[in-house]
Amino acid sequence: MSIYTTNGDKGTTNLVRTKNVSKSDDRIQLVGTIDELTSHLGLIKTMMDKAEDIHFLEDIQKNLNTIVSGVADPFNREFRTEDDQTGQLEDEIDRLDGLFSCPKEENILPGSSRLSAELDIARAVARRAERDLAAVSVKFGADNGAKKYMNRLSDYLYIMARYTETTEQPVQNQEESRPSGGKEAEPVAAVQTPATSEAVIQEVLKRMGIQGRITLDSAKRLIDKIEQEAARRGKKAVIAVCGPDGNPIAVHVMDGAFLVSFDVATKKAYTAVAVKMSTKELSILAQPGGTFYGVDKMDGGRIVIFGGGVPLKVGDTIIGGLGISGGTGEEDHSLAEYALSVLNEVL
Prior knowledge:
The protein has helices at 26-46, 51-72, 83-97, 114-140, 144-167, 194-208, 216-232, 260-275, 279-285, 329-346, and strands spanning 12-13, 21-22, 238-242, 248-253, 309-314, 317-325. It is an alpha+beta fold. The protein folds into two domains: 12-167, Cobalamin adenosyltransferase-like (Hypothetical Protein Ta1238, Chain: A, Up-down Bundle), CATH 1.20.1200.10; 205-346, 2-Layer Sandwich (Beta-Lactamase), CATH 3.30.450. Keywords: ATP-binding, Cobalamin biosynthesis, Nucleotide-binding, Transferase.
């Protein structure tokens, strides 16, 4: 079967209930813009590491396909966009907004990192798609749920871009800027050395009363945030926090969690401080032929190689370990990454 049909050679195409529609028609423009947006989201997925974020973007792509189907067949109620789909975007916007202080849009210059720049491009295309949808609505009518969804989608992409800027490395200039006279510019300020940074961190820890280890109160606050996020994701987990010596500080069991998860979570926390890396990283190094192959047979079985354990750090100082057990290794690790993103809030 040939990829080309020649049916559109005269500048027309078909919708489900309308034949020979000009390709300049507002509905066709909208379909093309959404196709462009979906392709940008596909590129963004290839740049993301977290499975949860990728799945969320895939759900958005599926919802966009539904909107396109509704444009082509507006009387088919199967292609309506429901409020709960918009609600999922709102929940994610609220979650991200709670993780950092989002700057105002007028103060943003896109391009501080590759991923955030791609998200900003997708945001701009999403807004164009929203405008195209408004034009279609005026002439032909449009699903109100789709209009709400497209409005919220650009908000989500905006805040996701800003959040990414807080976690991604900024784009660095390839050359140092020079003054007009051609001479090397003098450095404006000295760069803080790692040794100085660590000294400052240790002083901050001392003033906070942490003394190089996470406190029980901080562990409780961290566990509380993780539990709320786990409940939002529909997960029932055991959450364990240990000190830098590997001894448990607090263990919390959510209602309905597996009995075995208690032992696994405490071992994940212990492992994270024992090997000074996440158990997800360790699981890769513990494969046959890897640097840590067989490590899970050592230390009386206290070492585990399932995702979900991470060291808790302030600067380069390990102040404790966190272990989460209740889902797959990827799901537990994703919750642990969330915990790291809110760690400074609870200390």
